[in-house]
Amino acid sequence: MFDLLLRNGRIVDGTGQTWYRASLGITKDIVTIIKGETSQVEAARVIDVSDSVICPGFIDMHSHSELKLMTDPEHHAKVRQGVTTEVIGMDGLSYAPISPVKLEQLLTFLAAINGMPPPETRWSSVKEFLDILDGRSSCNVAFMVPHAAIRIEAMGWEDRAPTPQELGRMQQLARQGMEDGAFGFSTGLTYPPGAYSDTNELVSICEAISDLGGFYMSHARYTKGDQLLDPFREAIEIGQRGGVPAHISHYHSPVEGMGARMIDLVDEGRNAGVDVTFDQYPYAAASTILHSLLPYWVHAGGPDALVERIKSPRVRDEIGDSVNPMWGSTLDNYIFSHIGSDKNKEWEGRSLTDMADFENKRMVDSICDLLIEENLEVGFVARTGNPENIRQIVRHPAHMVGSDGVLTGEMPNPRTFGTFPYVLGQFSREEGLFRMEEAVRKMTALPAQRLGFQDRGILRDGMKADIVVFNPDTVKANATFEEPKQYPEGISHVIVSGKIVIDNGKHTGALPGRALKSQ
To answer: For residue 74, which of 156, 136, 151, 159 has the smallest C-alpha distance?
Structure first.
């Protein structure tokens, strides 16, 4: 007898092949596909899903949920989209392996992205970090060793190349993280301290994990070379020279006409035998931390040094207009998404320009004063994306879906609440950019392949029961820039490790998520 029977649905198995009619039985956390008549099949619970698709649970290939999973384990924003696995440790900006004092520095540095963990909850190793999340949230996690953590641990917040000993320590830490269960190595090369590295440093770290099956995941160095394709060429080069696959995070450019050139670059690499993949979200806007607008040299020495430095009028004069964004955008398009204190919350949803004009301050002074007052806990949404480039890029077969969702603040990027139903409803059904089965592949089998999962991402007998049930005719995102914290429609059931988490659109309170491990 099955624990649960999903009767007579349209099975979309994740491979991209056309759907077929069947039922799906679950025993504990294992799937069985049942074709034909099921009236005599016994199950503790039967759900008729004849109007719906049954598919593997969605894998968010780019997530910033690690600390929010500790403080809000039901994780409604993601699990209601059908996300059953979050890939965390993104952009090199995460929290293990690292020693206690440096962990506190990193928590302060990244508070605008992830908030803070519970006061009594701390860790040092990747194993300890994953143990905290295992069986204590609604979503599975897969972790990438973050460059910031291992660089800070090996050499602090120094703006220089590592010594041979320091580089060796980073290699050792990356290996240890992989042995503890991480799936690869991630960088954020426009964020200090990752921005202080060079290509050779990153190649050496990749070499250290190549025999453990890891891959390289890069938030590219957007300031490099032509600032268009050269940043991505470096990412591919690092993977190629390091002996690991290369995966490019949130692969996009706001510059008109770049979509086709970026696709050509991926094809060029793959045709040359380089294992290149990438993720992208469907909303034409970025999200990040306010202090990322400050020049790299201002961050040297860590968050305490940064706050002290920007108190100086001389430093602010030197920063000057360099806080303005690349590619000709303006700070009118940069909208506060999260401000830590209640005192300044009223500015969430308004632009950086609005605040500077209201205060009658230079932009650099407005930014620095706010960062000091909030101890760096300020984030923004940059409405600077190019919808046409996104639509060209997401059609590529090496594209997989990643939300890059940030869960802090009252005005987050709508991608946090809407990415996966937007791809299914808008991109696939309404715009016809790809078939529904291909949309599901981009969310399931393809990221599972990149991560090396052997037991999930495809619906086959014996696979793990991470499952989504959705109505292909009604599934849609409701999140908008004006009202971003809106749950989607058309996703009726989400099952994680065989346990129902979303039951007819309602959260059951179940916390069956596991910390998945590579080794």
So the answer is: 136
Is residue 142 within 8 A of residue 86, CB to CB? The reply is yes
The DSSP code sequence of 391-452 is: HHHTTSTTEEE---B---SSS--THHHHHHHHIIIIIIIIT-SS-HHHHHHHHTHHHHHHHT
Of the candidates 465, 511, 500, the residue with the CA atom closest to the CA atom of residue 56: 465
Question: What integer is the mean pLDDT of 356-362?
Answer: 97
What span, in angstroms and rounded, lies between the C-alpha atoms of 380 and 318? Answer: 23
C-alpha 436/C-alpha 447 separation (Å) is 16
Give me the domains of the chain, ranges plus CATH numbers: 58-285+385-452+460-503 (3.20.20.140), 287-382 (no CATH)
**386: DSSP letter:** -
Contact of 317 with 213, CB cutoff 8 Å: no
> For the chain, what is the radius of gyration of the CA atoms?
22
E-assigned strands of 281-415? 286-289, 334-339, 378-382, 399-401
Angular region, 17: left φ>0, alpha ψ -120 to 50, beta rest: beta
Q: Is the peptide bond before 193 cis (omega within 30 degrees of 0)?
A: yes
Token pair, residue 489, equals 């429609």
pLDDT at 325: 85
Across the range 112-138, mean pLDDT stands at 97
Give the DSSP H/E element, type plus range, for residue 186.
strand 184-188
Which of 15, 16, 11, 37 is closest to 438 using CA atoms? 16
Q: What phi, psi does 106 have (nearest 5°)?
A: -70, -35
pLDDT in tens, 59-99: 999 999 999 999 999 999 999 999 999 999 999 999 999 99
Closest by alpha carbon to 427, among 397, 395, 384, 389? 395
To the nearest whole number, what is the mean pLDDT of the chain? Answer: 97
Please say whether the beta carbons of 384 and 254 come within 8 A: yes
- Written as one letter, the residue type at 382 is A
What's the average model confidence in pLDDT over 245-256? Answer: 96
How many Cα atoms sit within 13 Å of 338 on the Cβ side?
25
- Percent share of the chain, pLDDT over 90: 98
Amino acid letter, residue 502: I
